[in-house]
User: What shape does this take?
Amino acid sequence: MSQSVLWEVVKGNNAFLVKRNGLTLSTDPFNNTGVQTYSSTGFITQNAIGVVPTQAKVNQINNVNLVARKSTKFQQADRKTKNTQSVYASTLSVKHGIHTASRVIRKRFGTRRLGLQKAALRKLVKLNRANAVRRRNEIAASKAQKK
Amino acid sequence: MTSVPLVSVFSADDSTKVTAKHIPLPAVFQTPIRPDIVSFVHTNIAKNRRQAHAVNPQAGMQHSAESWGTGRAVARIPRVSGSGTHRSGQAAFGNQCRKGRMSLPIKVWRRWHRRVNIKQKRHAAATAVAATGIVPLVLARGHRISQVPQIPLVVEDKIESYEKTTDALNFLKRFGAFEDVQKVVSTKVVRAGISKQRGKKYRVRKGPLVVYFNENAKLLKAFRNVPGVEVVNVTRLNLLQLAPGGQLGRFVIWTQSAFAHLDKLFGTYRYASVLKDGYQLLRPLLTNPDLARIINSNQVQEKVQPAKTTKVLHEVQKKNPLKNTKAMDRLNPYAKKQRAAATAAIKANTKGTKKIKKNKALKKASRAAFNKVSAALNDATKAAVQEEQDIKVKYFSVQKGAAQAE
Assistant: This one.
């Protein structure tokens, strides 16, 4: 289903739409800017990548997941990899490091859609940084506790 | 369509097993998505379940009120006749009056129901069915389908013989539909407003819709107590269930026979429908609605002129060259060199002066001297203060003595 047609259906009302204070925002996991616009709304495309924070445990590094939208045209009835795959997305956790994750993003977009690419990378960096700060604080707190 | 999309039928007991590998998608699922038709039909059809109600026709009119006319220093509104009570002489009948009847009282013969052209209703239903097969639309409607193996979800007919709710629940869990049910359960809220007292205490979301075919199927009883789940026979598909609120993209679970029946119900693009007399599926206005593909296609790009680069003649906002170095450099390219030379000169001047390394001993000595001086100062001020106080005491004691003497 083409992005243009889906946009016409979805732009007025959808489950991810949040309108507040005159702003039109989106909680779409495939939207890296947070604002609902035609190009940034990833769930209506076939090839978006969303950068999503996860509820990982305290001492784990991988608190960020990459969620890659995949084509739903020819769906595979393959249920082997249950937890990371869904009909419309495949998930990659960032446990192999932020560089691997950024390579995934760059490869998916190539030289096209620089705006979307930058948005995804920006969000990845920010989440990672926030996570690092959080971890640093937690480690300091646990050390203080031990004393 | 050159290639017909294919769909797998899943085994009811095991969501990893597929009983029928590739079934062609019924033609309904290729119907163009027409939210305008659906919205129109939905708003009208939703009115058909309404029950007539009205205001009591005598409400507010059960008085023999008459206007007092002019000349009595009161408004000309009809006033209640009689005496001996507060009510007499009070205004009556008007919609603006206290205890008056409402304006345009509701009548029972209000036109509650709407008829919609059959063709429009059928097109709407077809579009709604098509939308249930489009993943982004189901996501946009808010269904939780991240664990569902396939959209549209087609399951073997075995579920039609489920009698126990446990079977139904386990089935939903196996196919990732339970997340949607959980959403329904967790978002059940007490309704705002008076409807609470009129039998509509809770507002409950819509979960999956299960569509079956065989009339003597028992699954209705199995599924009906699961919150949010609705069950419907494929011959009685209802737009109000397929597109609740006029919003396309309900999460639907089809049984195999129901799925196969859709072609007979709605027809295909080759043959009109068998069961809906003379109904032909809506044809799309554009065979290729993908704007991005059209624009980027060879045929269009060949004809299109190269993109114009906008020539920037000057900045939109004037920058002050005396403050903004880049603006200055644009006007006077030599300014950069001048600035560099100036900074170099300053650096050269300061290079000759050596830093005076203060001797530690010197520091100590100077500090000692300072302390001495400050100590001397302190003593001096102390002495002065003391002297002043002595004088004061003497003075006042002298005064006292003088007063006592007197």
